[in-house]
Fold:
Amino acid sequence: MMRVELRQAGTDQLLEQLELDEVPFPGRWLAVGERSFLVMQRHHRYQLRNGLYELETVALQVKAEHQPAEARLWQGRWVIGDPNCRFNARTPLLRCAVLPEGPCLRCGHFEPAS
Structure:
């Protein structure tokens, strides 16, 4: 188990402390009870003990956000919309350049990625 701090991205305000078996990487969603967060950054905090640095906590910079229904795991990371479209941003933050609000379903600008 690892001690994890959830901190608001941009302000670094401590939102919550918890123990997790697996600490999520940036670009992943984390559900905590009824709330969900998008992990933006991950920082490791070490403490010097007996002349050695030991990992003390992991601070996650998070943004409170519900995981969109169109989010899907693609090549080991989360993306919003259809990653097979040329215009898809392939990130969990932005769907695409042409129609950022979506939806991808029935979009007239769809072009297969090369």
